[in-house]
Amino acid sequence: MLQLNHVWFGFDEEFLFEDLSLVIHTGHRVGVIGRNGVGKTTIFNLIRHVHTPNEGEVVVPARWRIAWLRQDMPATDRTALAFVVDGNHELRLIEKQMQDAEARDDMNAYADLFDSYGALGGFQAEAQAGMILAGLGFSADDFHKPYSSFSGGWRIRLNLAQTLSQPSELMLLDEPTNHLDLEATVWLQKWIARYQGTMLCISHDREFLDQTVDEVFHIERKSGVLYQGGYSSFERQIAERLEYQGKVFEQQEKERKRIQAFIDRFRTYSSKAKQVQSRVKMLEKMRATAPLRALSPYRFTIEAPGQMDRPMVSMDDASLGYGTHAVLENVTERIYPGDRIALLGLNGAGKSTFLKSLAGELDLLGGSRQSGMHTTIGYFAQHQLELLDETICAYDHVIAGGAVLTQQARNFLGYWGFHGDDIFRPVASFSGGEKARLVLALITRHKPALLVLDEPTNHLDLEMREALTSALNQYEGAVLMVAHDQQLLRECADEFWLVKDGAVMHFTGDLDDYEAMVSRAVQIDTAKRKKPDRSRKEQRRERALERENRKESIRRRKELEHAIHELQKELNGLSDLLADSEALGEIANKELQSIFAKYGRRRKKLEDMEEEWVALADND
Asked: How many CB atoms lie within 10 A of CB 539?
């Protein structure tokens, strides 16, 4: 088992943890949660012995191999496939030893290493790496591209793929879904379900945690508590404690009324049956979740303008894309006030292209786009975090938007979790989550009529995700979004649009139906990979036969080396006898002729064996 026993640890004489203890049994999967800055990643560094406790001890079983997701890796020209296989360090070491043995012509050592290589799954390593890459959204063409040619988010996916390919007894995953789309997230959930080792996962995605962990370690007040069950179970346990203490929050009733209104409005619509049933389940959960959400440090709302157009944005026969390359064609859609639309589709299908075009960030290649005179748009995408002026503070960003009183700016930032001197810290010192919060605050400050959100929850902690979900549900404008956060989609989206095969179409099912569809597609693709066309199968057979022939060659050479050694010993004995004149004088003539004949046969056999050995060596 993994143990942290009475750990005290801190930086610059201020303790991050005080008397923290944790015991994780073999094979358990634990979600590590807590607000940004409480020390979640530091826990991983203590386990990996990157940090040493000021007091207490961290005990990791000596035989455990640890695989951890690295966020930053130096760029390399290794291909994606080779990079992923590199995660199996033991396999790569044996490959190097095999090369060394072959270079020095040590076939005995090579044969032993060859067997070890096969036992470690060396001959299946690239195929398994390919399966992982495909599951995480890489195409077959990507497999042979150099690591350095991929963008930052795709490099993180490659780092994750390498982590998953590494044999381990303990896996440490730090925000593994941050750069994944919904399809890759669902695939990762299924992969983790098959993982045989112990896992700790830092995540702010509640549904991902519910699908992957059986315990939750909640870090707060410089210590932590381990709860049995997934994240929903953790919420219920916390909520029961808060309710016992008399924590009752009126926000829950507002949310309940909004959800009930949706149920009442669409109860008789067969096309909305799945969504209605989803909202019914949501109501059943609300008693457990609302008290926990009310403890959030975030208190913001998103206001819509007093007047809104119907429709807000119209597209007719639009062609969307870049340069002369059309990604989506014949797009005709309308956005109305109150719409809650989520886009679904595989990576690269054109979801972000659609959002950019709708928001007016990308010119159309053809067709038309009309925006109402009252339709102001708040557009959020990950690249906007990089557009913040890092030399100034959050306060300066707010007042730069117009005449704002100092206290108003303080209050506004306080609603978004920026308090005290934090509002005067330069943005360069912000974490990814803080930058995302600031961008969201800035785009919602001017009361947009339409929010276009591309992966808004990346880098946000659980409490901020919950606050954003609540704010979106109260917002009276329209929302169009792409997200891998399944809980956000379930709670905020009233309808789904599917981006597929160069078109945008309305999806009649719910999120569970879409995930089932994606899983079936993955299973079919996997089956195709297992049943390749004849030419590829023949190529594999040839390679397998070549490996078997090589193994047989090595085995035969080892047999010949042993036989040559024994035959040479016998010939040396006969030579010594024939060179001893006194011994020959005592041997009868007939027997002497027999000895000479035996010597000749042995000598000829030795020459034949040596010729065979040389021929085998030349072929290798």
From this structure: 11
Phi, psi values for residue 204, rounded to 5°: -110, 15
Report which secondary-structure segment, H or E, holds 453.
strand 450-454
Determine the Cα–Cα distance for residues 43 and 58; give it in Å rounded to an integer.
Answer: 10
Gap between the Cα atoms of 610 and 620, Å rounded:
16
User: What's the one-letter identity of residue 152?
Assistant: G
- Residue 257: both structure tokens together: 């009324």
**Structure-token pair, residue 95:** 């490959």
Cβ pair 20, 224 in contact under 8 A: yes
Residues 394 and 425 sit within 8 Å (Cβ to Cβ)? yes
Nearest CA to 363 out of 314, 319, 330 is that of: 319
Q: How many other β-carbons are positioned within 10 Å of the β-carbon of residue 179? A: 23
In this prediction, residues 242-264 reach a mean pLDDT of 66
The first and second tokens of residue 436, run together, are 């995302």
> Helix count (H) and strand count (E) of the chain?
21, 18
**H/E element, 173:** strand 170-174
C-alpha span between 450 and 335 (Å, rounded)? 9
List the end-to-end C-alpha distance of the chain, in Å, as a whole number: 47
Task: Give the residue among 484, 321, 452, 447 at the shortest CA–CA distance from 381.
Answer: 452
- Kindly provide the residue ranges of all beta strands, DSSP E only, lying in 542-595, ordered along the sequence: none
In order, the DSSP letters of 291-321 are HHHTT-S--------S---SSSEEEEEEEEE
Record the tokens describing residue 304, joined without a space.
Answer: 């819509």
Q: Where are the beta strands (DSSP E) in 323-354?
A: 325-335, 340-344
478 φ, ψ (degrees, to nearest 5) = -100, 150
Picking from 381, 369, 285, 373, the residue whose alpha carbon sits closest to that of residue 319 is 369
Mean pLDDT score across all residues of the chain: 85
Cα 30 from Cα 11, distance rounded (Å): 26
Which element (helix H / strand E) includes 266?
helix 251-266
Residue 110: name the closest of 120, 121, 100, 123 by CA: 100
3-state secondary structure of 397: helix
- Supply 204's token pair: 């702010």
CB atoms within 10 A of CB 400: 11
Residues 306, 360 contacting (CB under 8 angstroms): no
What are 604's two structure tokens? 């000829």
Task: Check whether the bond before 311 is cis (ω within 30° of 0).
Answer: yes
**E strands, 95-250, in order:** 170-174, 198-202, 215-220, 223-228
**Beta carbons within 10 angstroms of residue 377's beta carbon:** 21
d(CA 336, CA 358): 13
Q: How far apart are CA 394 and CA 397, in angstroms?
A: 5
pLDDT 10s digits, 45-60: 999 999 999 999 999 9
Chain segment 429-473, per-residue pLDDT in tens: 888 888 999 999 999 988 999 999 999 998 888 888 888 998 999
> Would you place residue 527 in the very low, low, confident or very high pLDDT band (cuts 50, 70, 90)?
low
pTM here is 0.69
Contacts of 539 (CB under 8 A, 6+ apart): none
Residue 7 bridge partners (DSSP): 20
3-state secondary structure of 225: strand
Question: Could you give the 3-state DSSP secondary structure of residue 580?
Answer: coil
